[in-house]
Give the backbone structure.
Amino acid sequence: MDIDSASPSPTRVDAVVVGAGAAGIYQLHRLREQGLRTRVFEAGDDIGGTWFWNRYPGARCDIESLSYSYSFSPELDQEWVWSEKYATQPEILRYLHHVADRFDLRKDITLRTRVTRAVYDEESRHWEVSTDTGERVIARFVVMAAGCSSTPKDPGVPGAASFAGDTYQTARWPREDVDFAGRRVAVIGTGSSGVQIIPEIAKRAAELTVFQRTAAFTLPARNRPIDAAELAEHKARYPWFRTEQRRSKGGSVVEMPTVSALEVSEEERTAAYESAWQAGLLSAMLRSYTDLLVDERANETAAEFIRAKIRATVADQETAERLSPRGFAFGTKRPCLDTDYYATFNEPHVRLVDLGRTPIEEITAKGVRTSEREWPVDAIVFATGFDSFTGSLTAVDIVGKDGARLRDRWAAGPRSYLGLMSAGFPNLFTVTGPLSPSVLTNMMVSIEQHVEWITDCVTYLREQGVAEIDTTPEAEEEWGAHVAELAAGTLYPTAASWYTGANVPGKARVFMAYVGGLDRYRARCAAVAEEGYEGFVLSGRTGAADGAGGVTAAGPVRP
Ligand code: NAP
């Protein structure tokens, strides 16, 4: 084992959880309930993960608040009051703080501490976890709850350091208010973060120039306050609603389509799309018909409906055309929800620069220079996205059996069984890891499913006195092929998106989410556990020090 003898001696716990976002704090709660001494390390100076870091103006969830919340505690459901259909970032952060306080979680969370390294000792079957504050912790289990989109990608625009004005990144927004009043502001990037911040900056800035590389499909959120009667009615049916969420394909309670978009008349289709457009729900549009994500012709009917809405909203038809997404199918890059995004381009002080025609060449001291001209600005906002799925995992130097590094093993794309564990990295679980349903679902529901499965697995191992769980290259191979095969039956892999790693130069192109649905995935995970952790290898015996105490294993346990 690679131990730095100069640093203080390590402390011992049962489990280390990396990250104190929605996944990490729930994992802590569950492991502690099972009696595991658990430490959580969080790089930020507060809990909240995504909802701590992405505090830019306009940041809010695009899944309804009544649905995007934990289901594990009926009492929590009843006591928490959501104020809007789509909660703002501060409200979601307050909710996560409430959860942490209510379940007394903070005492086991160490803030301002980034896990830098985790090394597996094959002899003792423990991980040694190191942090950037010099702490070392020895634990039987490590749970990576570091988030799917939490490592901002390098915007990759040359000259950024030479800019004389202020630069901001949506994913690392400062805590203090940023006042854009009277300033000339550039926003680079028009994904979910860009479409949320652009209308907000437009309200204050003297001039706003939006640099768009790829136009996004975005639908009106139709956000609104939730009144007391609606909240009471929803709370009364929460038990039913939570069960339905858990049974659902995407973690939201939506009516599933039964017909193809190509089987109905144009009038009927337009009426269905109009109703989805008015609903202000991404899932309503995506699930209008059975084949929007599998058939290009079907998809084009929805895409063209949205383009017609853009033309009807944006007064200048040349700008409308540039804002109209083309070249990829609706839904294959994550669609967005917005408030007044397209209408913002009717404002006289807002303009759009189409980087498809005039790419950015560099950032200068004065502003942004495209192939056409220099655009002088006082501030630049990067809304340029993340190294998603793998970035937060490969950022940690994870060293498994035989000295293998996770980041090397994953150089050609992530390898994982069920998106839960990678062969050769035993006792190390990923919450909503690559090749699981994760970002194609309501993340809260996927997080709960993973955390509960991991907790049950760890509990089983401890009860059986088993020291180690690993998976095999064969199980990984089979799962990877299954995930790829399902994805190949859809339009998803046809787009150059962050789902495939295409947004990060040099990253392997692999479709990284399981498209088969959370319902099917949940059933498979449950069956694997019921069959004695099929596809996993259980080995070694624990001593009394592990709190397990020599119970005979039921399944096949290797020495
Ligand atoms: P994103 O979807 O990856 O969008 C990044 C944008 O920046 C894209 O328009 C991209 O263009 C552009 N870009 C990247 N590098 C560039 C460069 N060098 N020059 C010019 N343009 C560049 O990232 P995001 O908007 O932060 O959203 C990421 C995900 O987080 C979302 O898809 C969603 O899952 C989640 N999110 C959710 C919410 C919500 O719930 N409301 C809010 C924010 C984020 P290309 O498309 O051409 O690469």
In short: The pocket of NAP is lined by residues 60-62, 149, 155-157, 170, 188-194, 196, 211, 213-214, 334, 355, 360, 383-386, 439, 498, 503 (CB under 6 Å). The radius of gyration is 24 Å. The mean pLDDT is 95. The first strand starts at residue 11 and ends at 18.
